[in-house]
Amino acid sequence: MIRDSRCVILQRDLIRTAITRAKERLLMVIPKSIACILIGYLLGNISPAFFFGKTKGYDIRKEGSGNVGATNVFLLVGKHAFFITAALGKR
């Protein structure tokens, strides 16, 4: 009888320890996940075509065809910026 009660107590302690560790891990993962989501969202909203146009002094929306895309970057900025914009641009 004493042996059975010790096993039950040990099982309860193991379960409590496992739950506590799981909560601690979750509290460490959630802020990192939220930070990754926010950074990804912000970086995804940056248009590479607009960025390359601004670096060369063009407002890519008002010059050329007016389209913020790789072809307009090629016409106004050059082929290196075109390839990067085509690779990173939104489809």
Which short descriptors sum up this protein?
2 domains; mainly alpha; about 90 residues
Q: Which stretches are low in confidence, meaning pLDDT under 50 for 5 or more residues running?
A: none
Compressed to H and E, one letter per element, the order equals HHHH
Share of helix, binned: over 70%
Mean pLDDT reading: 85
Could you describe the largest sheet, including whether it forms a barrel? none
Rg of Cα set? 27 Å
Distance between the termini: 70 Å
Tell me the domain tally.
2
| Overall 3D shape | rod-shaped
Q: Approximately how much beta-strand content do the residues carry?
A: under 5%
Helix vs. strand class: mainly alpha
How many separate helices?
A: 4
| DSSP strand count | 0
Write a structural description.
The protein has 91 residues and is mainly alpha-helical. It folds into two domains: 1-45; 47-91, no CATH class. The chain has four helices and no strands. α2 (48-55) packs parallel to α3 and α3 (70-76) packs antiparallel against α4. The longest helix has 43 residues, at 2-44. The protein is rod-shaped, with a radius of gyration of 27 Å. The protein starts with a helix and ends with a helix. The mean pLDDT is 85.
